[in-house]
Design goal:
Layout: E1 11-15, H1 22-29, H2 42-49, E2 55-63, E3 68-75, E4 80-84, E5 87-91, E6 97-101, E7 109-111, H3 128-147, E8 155-157, E9 165-168, E10 173-176, H4 183-196, E11 202-204
Parallel strand pairs: 1-3, 4-7, 7-8, 10-11
Antiparallel strand pairs: 2-3, 4-5, 5-6, 8-9, 9-10
Helix pairs in contact: 3-4
Length: 205
């Protein structure tokens, strides 16, 4: 079987990928076309692909009769950013560090995190304290979405767990949320305040 060209891989198909190109994922597999399908294991191919921080999970299927290997991936999505010198760190909802880039994406910028700079590397995860803060951040964003003001939040300072701070850059406003014990009411207040004091710079408790 190992020597027979009848079982050589002719096609590698990638499914469910959006962020990472099919070409990149095919390269990650380490499989060359015309390689005999019995010369590699699904486990080792999966381990190679999972080294990419954007890949949360992957399933490998091989059809020896059609000479095809099918790679089905589940990707992580950047939902927030951290400030990192002159660059930005893309983070997903589970606190995984996906990428460090000079490009600022359209997500809230988180300031005041305590994960050490040495640990801020793609593939790593935020430390325990920041993961706890992240849970609150996600609740803030969810409540802001419900109130229809999520697009106005440009920064969230998480340094003080007893007083999360929002920056609404386009509105020239800073809002102190306290410990976020009643976010739904707070977001409705912020929405009303924005409408009432349109164009007026200020800080609000």
């Amino acid at each position: 079987f190992v020597l027979s060209p009848v079982f050589n891989v002719k096609t590698i198909e990638v499914i469910n990928n959006e962020k990472i190109s099919s070409e990149q994922i095919v390269s990650m597999t380490g499989i060359s076309l015309n390689t005999n399908t019995f010369k590699f294991t699904k486990k080792e191919v999966k381990e190679r692909i999972l080294k990419n921080p954007y890949i949360e999970d992957v399933t490998i299927n091989r059809d020896v009769f059609s000479n095809k290997v099918k790679v089905t991936v589940k990707e992580r999505t950047a939902t927030i950013m951290l400030e990192y010198g002159n660059s930005y760190v893309y983070i997903n909802n589970q606190g995984y560090i996906l990428e460090i880039s000079p490009i600022k994406i359209d997500t809230p910028l988180i300031k005041g995190y305590v994960t050490s700079l040495e640990d801020v590397k793609p593939g790593n995860r935020l430390n325990k304290d920041d993961l706890e803060r992240l849970e609150v951040v996600l609740k803030i964003i969810e409540s802001a979405q419900t109130a229809g003001i999520e697009n106005l939040i440009t920064e969230i300072n998480i340094k003080n767990k007893k007083n999360y701070i929002l920056t609404l850059e386009s509105e020239d406003k800073i809002v102190y949320l306290g410990n976020c014990s009643d976010l739904s009411t707070q977001m409705l207040y912020i929405k009303e305040m924005i409408q009432r004091e349109k164009g007026i710079e200020g800080e609000y408790l």
